[in-house]
Amino acid sequence: NPDTSNTNLTAVDPICLGTNGTITLTDIIGTLSDGNYIITYDVSGANISVNESASVTISGGTGSFSVPSSILTNIGTTTITITSITNTATNCSSIANLVVNFEIIPLPDTTGATINVIEPICLGQNAIANLNGPALPNGSYSLTYDLSGANNSTANLATVTITATNGSFTIPNTLLTNTGVTNITLTLLTNNTTGCTVSGLSITDDFIISPIPSIDVDEVTINDICIGSDASVEIISLGGLIDGNYQIDYSISGANGPSNQSANVVITGGNGVFTIPSGLLTNTGTTTITFTGVTN
To answer: Is the dihedral of CA 116, 118, 120, 124 positive or negative?
Structure first.
């Protein structure tokens, strides 16, 4: 009959919830001969099951078998007790009492987790994404995310440190080369301390990559005015200014000025108007306006 009197039992410890357990038999002096065996074992502690069976091949005095994750559904300390072992070649069996404990630890808990990309973001800038996980313990996490929409990429990697349920990571501008609405989807999260991973996630947010505003001289019209009147500056953008609110920085020179000024303008349908006050235009003659900056 199989002799397990000198056999030790060890387990991979700890393991993540949802992972098979791995149990190894090691005969330290060779009383358990090499060969194929059927073992019967019980599971107790955090998980309970009886009369489970597995095949194991002993080679060089050692062999391993798996405890399926389907019977390891609870976190906590679990005990494996081998109660019998049968040599498949001889069909001889022995009663055994080999015991080993191992810990099952939780996966990252993403219940209620959200991701939010801070806006505004201009073309050429990195984006900062905030991850909020009400059930995530403090610590370092690795994550995988996909981008779709105006910018497309998959299986992008980042590291985030969660402190008091919050953490942030950078989406590099090399992944954000197009303007428009981009979607981020967090698909996988790994606790870097435990090594436990939760996959198949769909934690999403939409954000906008805005173009860098620009004005071309051909897009600006200023009509001649009488002394004492305001000057109206009309902008008809051909694409450099999306609809929105802008600060226009400009200088005037020539007959009037020099003077550095700024004005607010609302662009709607590509069009907008702002005024140069008459108080800056007190002399007759040709005055030149130079745009020095534009900020959305």
So the answer is: negative
